[in-house]
């Protein structure tokens, strides 16, 4: 490494970068621990919440919302189906499309998981003024857009 090359920790925004990464890691860790009583993990929660909100969504739409590839879906959905949390049904208009639905057990687990998630959000952010929460969300959304653009560029050049 040459002396003219800048080091990550010398960058004025490095502290923000690390804080975002650490917050994300810790949030996933705590959420994983708290969801363990329901025998689900955060990726399962993401699926359950989306099916709760958008019942009948296609597998492709769900993958797009969750920013995951088909391989992630092809691993996660069968596990959840086998456990009786979701069911896949063919689309009435297009037999190539599978639509996803919560089972009664899946709805029950989704509701319990959302209560756990909501309680964690409340414990974590209740001392932060709502205006600051909105500003933090806007900042994170800008980071998401920048990283999505990087991801698109990488995909297009491959």
From TrEMBL:
Alphabetical list of InterPro entries matching this protein: HTH_MarR-typ, Tscrpt_reg_MarR-type_CS, WH-like_DNA-bd_sf, WH_DNA-bd_sf
UniProt KW keywords: DNA-binding, Transcription, Transcription regulation
Pfam family, one: MarR_2
SMART domains xref list: HTH_MARR
Keyword Nucleotide-binding included in the entry's annotation: no
Transcription in keyword set: yes
Residues of the HTH marR-type domain: 10-145
Protein name listed in UniProt: MarR family transcriptional regulator
């Amino acid at each position: 490494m040459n002396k003219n090359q800048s080091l990550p920790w010398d960058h004025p925004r490095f502290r923000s970068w690390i804080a975002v990464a650490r917050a994300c890691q810790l949030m996933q860790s705590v959420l994983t621990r708290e969801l363990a009583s329901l025998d689900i993990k955060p990726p399962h929660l993401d699926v359950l919440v989306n099916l709760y909100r958008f019942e009948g969504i296609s597998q492709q739409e769900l993958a797009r919302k969750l920013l995951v590839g088909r391989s992630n879906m092809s691993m996660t959905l069968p596990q959840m189906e086998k456990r009786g949390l979701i069911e896949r049904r063919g689309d009435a208009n297009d037999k190539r499309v599978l639509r996803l639905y919560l089972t009664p057990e899946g709805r029950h687990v989704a509701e319990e998981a959302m209560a756990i998630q909501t309680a964690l959000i409340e414990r974590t952010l209740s001392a932060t003024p709502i205006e600051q929460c909105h500003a933090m969300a806007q900042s994170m959304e800008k980071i998401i857009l920048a990283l999505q653009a990087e991801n698109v560029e990488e995909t297009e050049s491959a």
